[in-house]
């Protein structure tokens, strides 16, 4: 029951149809009153873990948060979800909040650590009487001196453990090393806590790096690119390392007529608050700021985060770039560095001494190495944070997607390594590079380096070219960089020494390296590296999948939302996210029930704005000549298309590639590929199909006509599947689509159909004709006849239907076994297509309704309350067909109407096509 309650509460207040990874488990443990430490990526949805329990239990959640602006944003957003939330801190101007808080009025009560520690004990005892369901410490790394944002006041929170004895303590953070983790557990005196460590991988973020020169040409191009982003309704943050840069970019944007916000530490508090406010409320779409901006900011639609200058550490880069794409939609993080940034050690070290100085230097070197990395950036980032990334290519960073030229640089590498060797590792990179470039500076003459035979042999390349080469040699282990205080020195490693010993001035072993951007710029002509280059943005994806008029409707609906937001002084995203508006623009629901079904629409939205939105949708659609209740199957396709373009060069696993090659290039059938004699063991036909569809998703060519022919998918069946998707309202899960499709449609057909849609293929590639499938009557009815072997074959070749066979098997088993809890079904469930396993169980549940019970012989009349009574008996929900069967005395349209009303009133909701009680 609790899982059901969790899901219905999630839909009711947040409008989401499912949990993100870990959320459910974490919440479950908190509900069991276990202390928990939650370490999950930025934007992964940690807040929900403390927001949901109070709604389920009806008791207050206390949340400690470091910043007042952050608490205010969260309170604003929660209120828009119909959640009673407030904050207690020095900035609270409403005197009633304290009283209401102690009498348990609020679901979520935010406090600064100072407030929590100084509030009188009587407050806690009163509130404890009505109930505190959890005590959460957000940004919990602030508790640790080892953390990067240590806050003294957080250390005092342990006092509260003795007061809130039986209240579960929950620590949440996006960054925590082992030391910090232990510190949080000890400081909060956690008792046997559950520690949840999620992946740090933000899959929807594209990471890219470019070098630049601060000149006016670069600035013009930079501003030009930013103006393209502004055309979309999403937001951009430009982070600068200095206030001077912030002001310069802000000025350039203004001169170009681009409205932007500005934020840095030297601005007055009120000016900063105003900047924060206009950005959050979408009054400006660009924010130019130092890193003082944005801690804990939860604006879901930030589509670009650009770093103008190398950040001081990878920890801060991860945090800042993590503010991008919090709604899970593909977003882009570009980092622009200038070689001068790497010399800023003194600037960052400030007054620091000893170990602290060393730590700052190490962080800066890590950030520098990230900039100069020529292999996968995501792998580098994750491994820096101690997470193993199995593949060498993520396919979603510049190094994995933008093909770079390579060439043999053995001669140049030889010169540089030999020169560094001659300097005996006592210098940084500048000295050997100056020697190679023939400098006659005083320090070179003093050291008599002008007498070296290498002096002047590297004149053909710029200093930056040589540095770019040096960093590749460092990353491949030929050279080593060491840091002494704030100074870096380079020396030759063992690998480099081996390279030298196997080389002569006339001949060196081949050494193929990448021609980096800096090298290209240098080759084209020195100094043009100020060129903006291709700032990969998403603006061009904006309307992919949208018709022009749908795009217009989307913008009109954004304006409607803005009007509401202004009217009540809140941020538009707090009303609902841009993605939800996109889905509304695509589906154009005509009823409250259809609107309620859209992901992101919660009960508060529906009751407060539902009627108005429905009216607007109707008027605007009419004016734009768009039909209502459009094709729901489009919504996921559009979102998918907004992901960065699949790259042809992305590698498939060898097994996938092999299968694709045999099928596509050698013309073998799926069955032949599966059973190819050279295989150590045959693989399943289904696996081969999965491989081929995976290859198609990666941009590999597929002969669709042949594939559809082989799996028995016809145009008519494609239309049937499309209709099923429309009925379901989503294509996220296969099972509901399968349930709504005619019986002869298999999971394989659905998968092929979805992949066709994803790849933007038209129906025309599918051969027309009858679907040539067996009917349910022609299917084998005994379990023994539906061997696994047959199942696989059926799955691929179409005519006989596995799922229906399973249905029949279960039906016959159920007839033989009165008790439906144990089904004698012995085949390996893992071998079923996704969903079949689930289906077995849902069918088992449904059997209770299907069985000809005495009750169903009495004609049941459908009313709202009799439907609610029915649903009350089934935790897993009831499909429409069973509801209709149950009320077989009532007209179908009448029952559907009643269901729609109940859905619109948020009394029931639909999940996986099953009606459930809220
Ligand atoms: N189950 C869900 N389905 C869809 N969206 C979700 C879900 N859970 C959370 N979100 C959304 O994801 C976004 C990020 O969530 P949240 O603010 O909780 O992240 P976080 O982990 O606390 O990040 P940070 O460490 O940066 O503060 C929010 O806009 C939130 O509404």
Automatic annotation (TrEMBL):
It catalyses: ATP + H2O = ADP + phosphate + H(+); Couples ATP hydrolysis with the unwinding of duplex DNA by translocating in the 3'-5' direction. It is found in: Nucleus. It is an enzyme of class 5 (isomerase). Residues 27-194 form the Helicase ATP-binding domain. Pfam families: DEAD (PF00270), Helicase_C (PF00271), HRDC (PF00570), HTH_40 (PF14493), RecQ_Zn_bind (PF16124), RQC (PF09382). Its EC number is 5.6.2.4. The keyword Ribonucleoprotein does not apply. Residues 225-380 form the Helicase C-terminal domain. Residues 547-627 form the HRDC domain. Coiled coil: none annotated. Its cofactor is Zn(2+). Its main location: nucleus. The keyword Cell wall biogenesis/degradation does not apply. Keywords: ATP-binding, DNA-binding, Helicase, Hydrolase, Isomerase, Nucleotide-binding, Nucleus. Belongs to the helicase family. RecQ subfamily. This is ATP-dependent DNA helicase.
